[in-house]
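Page 37, top half.
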Amino acid sequence: MSELKEFAQEELVESSFELKSNELSVNLYKWRGNIWKSYLIHFIEGFHLISGILLPFFLTWGKLRFVEVMFLQSYFTVMILVFEIPCGAIADSISRKFSLLLGALSTAFAALIYGSYPNIFIFAIGETLWAFGAALTSGTDQAFIYDTLRKLRREDDFSKVMGRNRSFHLFGIGISAPIGSIIGAYYSLNLVMSLIFVPFIIATLISLTLKEPNNDFEKKKTEKYFSVVKSGFTELAKNKILRLLAFEMIITEALVFFLIWTYQIYLEALTVQLIFFGFVSTSMTIIQILFNNVVTTLENKINNKKKFLQIYTIIPGIGFILMSVIYFIPVSISLILIVIGFGFTRSLIFIKGINKQIETENRATVISTVNMIASLIRAILYPLVGYFVMWNLNITFILLGALIIMFALLSRIKNEYL
C-alpha cells in the first residue's frame, strides 16, 4: 500500500512538473511573439501621413502663423509633461499592455478631432488627446520590451530590438509621407490628418494580443497610486549616474528635434517645390533606419564609448552651422540628412545604460519621468525657437549647432556608464 502511495506521489510530481513545463513553453512562445508584434505595431503607428506636409497643414489649411504653431507644440509638450508620470504609473500599477493599447486608441481619436475643423482651439483638443496617447506609450514600450527580453534571457538584445523598433516606425513614416503628400495635393490636407485614425486603430487591435511580461503587477496593485509616482523621482534623486545619462540624452535630442519644424522653411528658402517635401521627409526616415542599425552595431564593437558619443554628437552640431551658410540644394539636403541621421539615433547609445540603472518594478515610471523632463525642456524652447525662426533662420541654426557642440565637449559621462 505504501509503495502504491509513493508511486502516486511520484506520478503527481511528474504531472505537475510537466504542466509547469508546458505552461512555461506556452508563455515563452507568447513572450517571443511580443517582439515581432512590437515591430508590427511600430511600423503601423509610423503611418503619420501628414509628416511630409505638416507645415502646409498648419499654415495653409489651419491658417496659423509659424509662431502659433510653435505655441501649439509647446502646449502639446506641456500636456505630455502633465500626463507623463500618471501614465507611467498606470503602466506600472495596472499593466503595460493596457497602457500601450489605450495610448494607440487615444491617438486614433486625436487624429479625427485634429482633421475636423481649422481652429486653434480644436487643434488644442486634438493635441491633448495626442499627448495623452504619447505619454501612455512613452517609456512604457521600452519597459515592455526590456521585461519581455528578461523573461527570454535576452537582455543584451535590448538595444538591437529597440533599434529595429525605430527602424520599423521610420519605415512606416517613409512609406506614408509621399502618400500623404499625394492625398493632400489631390484631395485635402485635413483628410490626410483624419486618415491617421486607421493605422492607430489597427495598432490598438494588435496590442490586445500582447502577453504581459511582468508578473509583479498583482503586488503593485495594492500600492498607493502616489507612491508609484513618487518612485520615479526617488530613483532619479538617489542615482547620480542615471541623472547624468538622462540629462545628456534629452538636452541634445531636444535641440536636434527642432529641425523637424524648420527644415520645410529651409527648403522653401532653397526654392524647393512643395511636391518634393514628402520625398525629403522619406529620405530623412530612410537615413534614420540606416543609422539605427549602424549605431547599435558600432556601439557593441567600440570600446571607448564616451569618445564615440562625443563625435556622434558633434557632427549634427556642425551640420546645423553649415546649414546656416550653405544654400546649394544637393549639399543642403545632405546636411539635413546628416543632422537627422546622427541626431535622432544618438539616444540608442544611452538607453542600455539608463535601463541598467533602473529597478525593474519602476522602469516605466522612471523612463516616463525622464521623458517628462524632456517635454519640459521642449515646452520652454518651442516659443523661443518660433520667434528666432521668424526673425532669422540662419542665426537659429547657428545657435542650435553651437549649443549641441558645447554640450558634447562638456560631457561628464564616463565610458563605464554606457
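Page 37, bottom half:
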Amino acid sequence: MRTFIYLSIFFGLIFVPYRVFAAVSGPCSNCHTMHYSQDGQPLGTDGPHQHLLIEKQGGHHSSACVTCHSSQTSSTYEDLGGCKVPIVFYYGSSAPTEYLAGGNFWWVKEGLGNDDTKGHNVFLGEDDDYLKDTGAPGGSISCGTHSCHEDLSQPYTGSDMVFVLNGKYGCQGCHLNVKHHAKDHANFESGLVDSADKGWYRFLSGHGFTGKGVKGYEYKDWEAGHPNLAPGGDAHNEYIGDATATGYGFQQSGGAGDGVTAFCTGCHNDFCPGGQGSSSPYKRHPSDAVIPNSGEYANVGGDSHLYDPLSPVAKPTVDTTPDTTVNPGTDMVMCLSCHRPHASPYPDLLRWDYLSQQAGGGGSDTGCFYCHTQKND
C-alpha cells in the first residue's frame, strides 16, 4: 500500500499538479516523505527537500503554493477527504467565471490570460512584463536585485536585512511564513485570526518585523461562489482597518497598524503612506480612511447599508461573525475595497471594469458608485 501511495504521488507530480490539504488533516504522505525514496529508489531527481516535502518549494513551474492550489476543473475550491483546498490558479483554456476573494492567477499566466497588468505574476521564470523595469507601483524602497514586486517570479537575491526574503519568490513574496499546521479556519470553519500562533490572517505575516502580521476574520470558503454573492449576507471575509495608523508596512516605529492596508503599503508605500493621508481633497485615493457619515457617503450600500463582497470595507474591530452591513462613520475604505490581491479580469487587479464606470449613467451601484452614491444620478 505504501508503495502505491508513493508511486501515485511521484507520477502525479509529473503529469498534473498535486494537491495538499490546506488545513491540518489528511495523510502526511500527501505532502511529506521521510527519506525521499521508496524500495531503494529516489522519488524524483531534484530532492530531497527542506521540511521533508515531496516537492521543492518553488515547484517545477511556479511557487509550490500555486502548484497545489490549482485545478483544471474547479475555479473555487476542492473538497478532498473532508478538507478544502482553495483554488487560486485555474489552468483551463478559458477564463474562470467564478473565483475566490483573492481572484485567480489565470489572467497573468503565459499561454492563458498572459496579461501582467491584471495581477501579480508568481510563476517561476515568467518575467513580469509590466513590473520588471519599474518595480512595484507606488514603491520607492529597493531591497535587492529581485526586490519584492520588482520580479516576484524570480527568487529574491538581495541583502536580507530584517525581511527574511532570501530565496523566496512567487506567493511567498506576500505569504511569507505559511503554517498549514496552524488553525487557519479552512476546514469548514470560520474565525478570527489575530496572532502569529494562528499563522496571521491568510498567512500574511510581516517581513521579519517582531510579532507583526495582518489580523482579520477568515471566512471558511474564501468567498467561494463570488462574483455571485448577494449583498447583505455574512458569507465573506472581514478585514481590520486603522484610521489612526502612520507610516507604512509593519515598521517597528511609526507602523501602519495590523490591517491589509498596512501590508500592501509595505511595497506600495507611496500610495497613501500612513493610510488616509492628511487632508482633502486627496491627491491619491485614501486607504484606511473612515467613510464619512455625511453627503453621498451616508448612503453607502444603499438605504439598508448592505455589505457587498464586491466592494469590501475595513472594520475598526472584527467580531466572531461577519457584519452584514456597512457603517458609515466608522468603517473604512481600504486597498482591497478596489483591488484583488492575486489577479482579476481587469487591469490593475481591480474588482470591476473601471472604464465602464460612467458618471451620471444611472442603473449601477457597484464599483466607484458603491461609496460615491451621488455620482451616478
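Margin note: The chain has three helices and twelve strands.
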